[in-house]
Design goal:
Elements (H helix, E strand, L loop, with lengths): L2 E4 L9 E7 L6 E2 L4 E6 L4 E5 L4 E6 L6 E3 L3 E6 L6 H6 L2 H8 L2 H13 L4 E7 L8 E4 L9 E7 L6 E2 L4 E6 L4 E5 L4 E6 L6 E3 L3 E6 L6 H4 L8 E7 L29 H4 L6 H10 L17 H6 L36 H16 L2 E9 L1 H11 L8 H15 L5 E3 L4 E3 L5 E3 L1 E3 L2 E3 L2 E2 L7 H16 L13 E5 L18 E15 L2 E15 L5 H16 L7
Parallel strand pairs: 22-26, 26-27
Antiparallel strand pairs: 1-8, 2-4, 2-7, 3-6, 4-5, 6-8, 9-18, 10-17, 11-13, 11-16, 12-15, 13-14, 15-17, 19-28, 20-21, 22-25, 23-24, 27-28
Helix pairs in contact: 2-3, 10-11, 10-12
């Protein structure tokens, strides 16, 4: 689906931008993090990165031309995709609405807002601030983010801040991201300490002239005049009203960052987008480069000057010391509390909403897997071909959904949406919890294509490189715990899906075939359904079709 990229707001005073140079052309393949263009603001010329993948289908502002913030800058989508509706309507919601309901169009508007990164978020507080004092609020770094956790502060109170300096690393529900400043001045106040979480738009920091009075910003209710404050964040947010800034408790200054690259403290390597691009082109490992930028950040000149002979190894240390288990006397009670990550909080909220809003019921069948095992062995004997049993389950499920469209639905209150496309969600375990990347149009893909897609998405999930677009739009989900030896289990529906399939392990056991007891291989699968959209008889028929595909894999190749 094509995505509109708008002219970003790159400074708090920016009203329009000029495209100084395009670094990509129409038809080029775009990867997440690629630099699309250099944009001139009222303060500086800055690189503009893509937060989406696809093909550059349209350039809306030519080199040297200026346009207001939020003007159509470019369109990214699938090669050959029809974007006429976007060009005529000027917003992705227009195209969405032509194919879906008004609810889907509203959802698309949120996605469209997300891709206009980076921007500046402006909020208003009832505060009269001295000239030059700027309130920086907790940014919204993903479409589902409701609060963020400060993982690491890279500046401390009293430090001089330049535009582009990295202030902190902020953990969202999806990833830990660098947070840059688009303002210059002195860091006068830190509102959220390391390891602490706060809602989006909470007071994160205050930047301004050294010695400036910030009491009005710390006690906004006491000031009678409304003043505009600015939260700078390298992402866009939706147009929802910003939450009022809460009065924070002053925090102690954080420790100085080291002069070498910040990976020494955090295990991550900080580098400018241009430096990353040059390093990739030159085949240089960023871990071998010593940065000369702010807090050891690697910049363009570091890559240009780098030679293997001059590379210096940098000893890395752990960001946190491992906690030693206390020695306890017999019978002594003890516990340890660990702060929940943003991902874990979102998982808890989404699954709680699903379990208590959708009336779940469960159906289980036992599938004979002898033919599937023989077919998989034969398929994998082909050169450069490897499929898993999970790939076979995904393919069979996708084909069964086409035969039973009632299961491929979404409950919308007054209406039920029947999805003609089949987008399979695949539950993937990651250290912080669970994510569900999506294999799109799974019914139209071969077993080997599905296998390659799942392998790629699972790798991105474990590396925390999945984009929001790769985790959206599923119509049905498969969760497989068979590799852990789990024979049977039930799952909570991944809304807005109407059903989720739980896949157990293949077990060798005595079975009855043609009146005789023989050794067979079976696998239990359990379908959890939303009774609002899928009745029991419909779900049973779906399982029968799915069972037939798995027990006779040749039918999936017809």
């Amino acid at each position: 689906m094509a995505i509109v990229v708008n002219m970003p707001r790159l400074s708090d005073t920016m009203e329009e931008g000029t495209v100084a140079k395009w670094l990509k052309q129409v038809g080029d393949v775009i990867s997440e993090g690629d630099i699309l263009a250099e944009i001139e603001t009222d303060k500086a010329t800055m690189e503009f990165e893509s937060f989406n993948e696809g093909t550059l289908l349209h350039i809306g502002i030519q080199e040297g031309d200026a346009a207001p913030v939020d003007a159509l800058l470019a369109i990214i989508g699938e090669k050959g995709e029809d974007i006429s509706a976007l060009l005529s309507g000027g917003a992705p919601a227009a195209q969405e609405a032509s194919e879906a309901s008004a609810a889907e169009a509203a959802e698309a508007a949120v996605s469209a807002a997300e891709v206009t990164a980076p921007v500046v978020v402006a909020t208003a507080t009832a505060t009269a601030l001295p000239e030059g004092v700027i309130v920086v609020n907790m940014p919204r770094l993903s479409d589902t983010m409701e609060e963020g956790t400060v993982a690491t502060w890279l500046k401390k109170v009293g430090d001089v801040i330049e535009e582009g300096d990295i202030l902190a690393e902020i953990e969202t529900d999806k990833a830990t991201m660098e947070f840059e400043s688009f303002n210059a001045g002195t860091l006068l106040h830190i509102g959220i300490g390391e390891g602490e979480a706060a809602p989006v738009d909470s007071l994160l920091a205050i930047i301004g002239p050294k010695g400036a009075d910030i009491s009005a910003a710390l006690n906004p209710v006491a000031a009678p005049v409304a003043a505009k404050t600015v939260a700078t964040a390298p992402v866009a947010v939706n147009d929802a009203a910003a939450a009022p800034v809460a009065t924070p408790t002053p925090k102690a200054p954080v420790a100085d960052a080291t002069a070498v690259n910040a990976s020494v403290q955090t295990g991550r390597i900080f580098a400018s987008p241009l430096a990353k691009k040059l390093a990739k082109e030159k085949g240089i490992s960023l871990s071998e480069v010593k940065g000369t930028g702010e807090q050891g950040r690697i910049v363009k000149i570091d890559i240009e000057r780098f030679t293997p002979a001059a590379a210096q190894s940098i000893a890395t240390t752990s960001a946190t010391a491992s906690a030693q288990a206390p020695v306890m006397a017999a019978g002594e009670e003890h516990y340890t509390e660990v702060k929940n990550s943003q991902m874990r909080k979102v998982i808890a909220k989404r699954l709680g909403e699903s379990k208590f809003s959708a009336p779940h019921y469960y159906l289980t069948v036992e599938v004979a897997m002898d033919n599937a095992m023989a077919s998989r062995a034969q398929i994998n004997s082909l050169p450069d071909t490897k499929v898993s049993f999970n790939d076979m389950v995904l393919k069979a499920s996708a084909m069964a959904l086409k035969k039973h469209p009632q299961v491929n639905t979404t409950w919308q209150g007054d209406t039920t949406r029947f999805n003609s496309h089949v987008h399979m969600g695949v539950a993937v375990s990651v250290p912080d919890g669970l994510v569900v990347p999506v294999v799109r149009f799974a019914d139209q893909q071969s077993l080997s294509q599905i296998g390659a897609a799942v392998k790629d998405l699972a790798g991105k999930a474990r590396d925390k490189k999945l984009t929001p677009a790769e985790m959206e739009g599923s119509t049905f989900t498969v969760s497989n715990l068979g590799m852990f030896g789990i024979q049977e289990f039930t799952s909570i529906i991944n809304q807005p899906n109407s059903a989720i399939l739980s896949v157990g392990a293949i077990v060798q056991k005595p079975v009855v075939k043609e009146g005789a007891i023989v050794v067979g291989n079976t696998m239990k699968i359990t379908l959890a359904c939303d009774h609002r959209t899928v009745d029991g008889a419909t779900a049973a028929a779906f399982l029968q079709t799915l069972q037939a595909f798995l027990e006779n894999p040749v039918t999936m190749l017809a």
